[in-house]
Design goal:
Distance between the termini: 82 Å
Oligomer: single chain
């Protein structure tokens, strides 16, 4: 079938079912005892072995094989000894892709049996300090290489979202007539690790003209795959399904799958009767599994199942819009009505004693404070968990909270669990931030995680709102670095956060008219709600520390000069109150609310500032 164009493949799938091959990586490790080595290295070191596996699958009945290029990316190749500093990373990736494609083509020719070849692209690792453009460029390099090699099909395999697939697919369509498939990895509940449901993914693919087919592979076994698929309306595009043989056990640090070819083929027969167009296997499957599936290629294509209408989903999503959020969320409702909301930040305790925090909350309850926000281990030093502390404050003191959640300390599983736990405990506001780095002296024993940055974590929560919390979503905001030299870059990042669902922004502390003017400029460019940060200074020493040791905060000399080294505690606090009131006056017509950071647990001082400002405002 070499040389078919996109329309011919589409016509073929209207009348026929394709049997795809099974696993390459797990079978390669099993067959050739290449434990711990990615099979893609075999394109360089063992091409005959890779070719032999392709031929086994074709002889077993597969009429669609995937190139051995799923992990042909720079990070994987570098870890395996290729693409180091002496190599051109792009050339190493391109060479591995080329060898992988040519090996697959040689296998088809040697078998003398017709088979399509799908150029396989897996997710590119996003760690190592790489930005989104670098990652996108690597995907585009892969696409360009396969276009030049003359492939008929490009398969994006085991993805969790469409973030990179869509722009690369659009590029492919602009430069070729290649058939594009997007396949996603699900958990047994029907969601990807990005928190997106199978139903939503199929709907998105249905609306994207650059993607010709979609499907699901890896992650789960055939039984769970069937349960997910039978509940959905699939749309009109061809569907690919390739589950794992089951769930592995770990023996001597190696994932081992049980041999269950008969059971697997029976379950896959049930899946095929749902109307699947392309059917195959993923981890743990072998040529014997495909031999059992081969008779399914003769079975007629069945009519697709029809699930709940998309209009129902649209109604649910519409209900999760900001209008409904504002109706149910007091903070957002106050902002939408034009009122000046007040948020006060407290640090959770560094030990097991919450007495000081409870006292601070009890004090703040006496004033018109709308919400307490709780930091998440600021300065990279351990504090009580912000969400659990917030849940206790909200439950026992009946005061709404906004815990901070940093990207620093939790992996993707823990983040999802944190969102679920917050929602179960009635928390409906969060501040999503990158988080202060771990201090340099602790980095040998403390590891930062950073599975997300603040934007991608917001995107994750946005998906969870749509899929899990649509009737009562979590409202969230982000941090605003108004002191950034290039404000247009900061505005660009704010816009990304807004697209990711951010409803408001909290700034670092402001101390001057220049700071307020920068916020005003941002407000003129971005339609969003901004809380102006206020952290009263309480002494000369405190002012010098903030000026000289806290990055990103500018304390002008004229503020420093209002304090003296020998002033009393009372005088220092009084000066801090006066400066805070002057600052609130300056920003009154600029910001949508005030964000107080409590200095040294002096909640009474914050109360005095709020009370005096309210009194002065009423007099005017």
């Amino acid at each position: 079938m070499k040389g078919k164009n996109m329309n011919q493949i589409k016509d073929f799938l209207k009348r026929n079912r394709l049997i795809m091959d099974g696993a390459m990586g797990t079978y390669y490790a099993q067959k050739f005892a290449r434990r711990g080595e990615p099979s893609e290295i075999g394109n360089f070191d063992a091409p005959d072995a890779i070719r032999a596996i392709h031929m086994e699958y074709i002889k077993a009945g597969a009429n669609l094989i995937r190139t051995n290029t799923f992990a042909s990316n720079y990070q994987t190749l570098k870890r395996s000894g290729y693409g180091g500093e002496s190599h051109n990373p792009g050339e190493v990736v391109k060479r591995n892709l080329t060898w992988g494609f040519n090996i697959a083509r040689d296998a088809v020719n040697a078998c003398g049996r017709p088979a399509f070849i799908a150029a396989d692209i897996g997710p590119v690792p996003e760690y190592g300090g790489r930005d989104e453009q670098e990652i996108l460029d690597e995907y585009l390099l892969m696409a360009k290489t396969f276009i030049q090699l003359g492939t008929d099909i490009i398969l994006f395999e085991t993805f969790s979202d469409l973030k990179y697939i869509v722009p690369v697919a659009q590029y492919i369509k602009e430069h070729s007539n290649i058939f594009v498939i997007a396949s996603f990895c699900l958990n047994k509940f029907g969601y990807t690790k990005s928190g997106i449901s199978a139903k939503k993914l199929l709907k998105a693919v249905e609306e994207e003209s650059a993607i010709d087919a979609s499907g699901f592979n890896c992650g789960i076994g055939a039984a769970h795959m069937y349960q997910i698929l039978k509940r959905m309306d699939w749309g009109t595009k061809p569907i690919l399904v390739a589950p794992n043989s089951g769930y592995p056990d770990t023996i001597r640090d190696r994932s081992v799958y049980q041999e269950n070819e008969d059971y697997f083929s029976e379950k896959m027969a049930e899946i095929s009767r749902l109307g699947v167009n392309i059917i195959g296997g993923c981890c743990g499957t072998t040529p014997e599994y495909i031999r059992k599936l081969a008779p399914l290629v003769q079975a007629p294509l069945e009519k697709r199942p029809v699930g709940k209408k998309n209009a129902d989903t649209a109604n649910v999503l519409a209900e999760s819009g900001q209008g409904r959020e504002a109706e149910k969320n007091p903070l957002l409702g106050r902002l939408e009505q034009g009122g000046k909301a007040i948020i006060v930040e407290l640090d959770p305790p560094y030990n097991g004693d919450m007495e000081k925090m409870i006292q601070a909350v009890e004090i703040l309850k006496k004033y018109p404070v709308d919400m307490i926000t709780l930091s998440d281990s600021p300065m990279g030093k351990m504090r009580a968990d912000s969400i659990m502390t917030g849940a206790k404050v909200q439950r026992e003191l009946d005061f709404p909270v906004m815990p901070h959640l940093t990207c620093r300390d939790r992996n993707q599983i823990a983040m999802g669990g944190a969102f679920l736990g917050a929602h179960l405990n009635g928390i409906r506001n969060l501040l999503i931030v990158t988080g202060d780095p771990v201090p340099a002296g602790d980095r040998t024993v403390i590891s930062s995680v950073y599975d997300f940055n603040s934007v991608t974590l917001m995107e994750y929560l946005k998906h969870m709102n749509e899929e899990y919390f649509s009737q009562d979503p979590i409202v969230y905001g982000g941090a605003l670095n108004y002191g950034r030299k290039n404000l247009d870059k900061e505005i660009e990042r704010m816009e990304k956060k807004i697209r990711a669902g951010a409803s408001y922004f909290l700034t670092q502390p402001l101390y001057s008219q220049e700071d307020v003017d920068r916020i005003a400029y941002i407000k003129s460019r971005v339609h969003t709600k901004i809380f102006g940060g206020i952290m009263p200074l309480v002494s000369y020493r405190n002012a010098l520390f903030m000026k000289n040791e806290i990055y990103g905060i500018h304390v002008p000399d004229e503020v420093i000069q209002r304090y003296s080294p020998d002033m009393s505690r009372e005088d220092g606090e009084k000066t801090g109150i006066i400066c805070a009131l002057e600052l609130m006056e300056k920003m009154q017509n600029v910001v949508d609310g005030y964000y107080f950071m409590v200095p040294f647990n002096r909640a009474t001082m914050i109360g005095k500032i709020i009370e005096q400002f309210e009194s002065e405002t009423r007099r005017k």
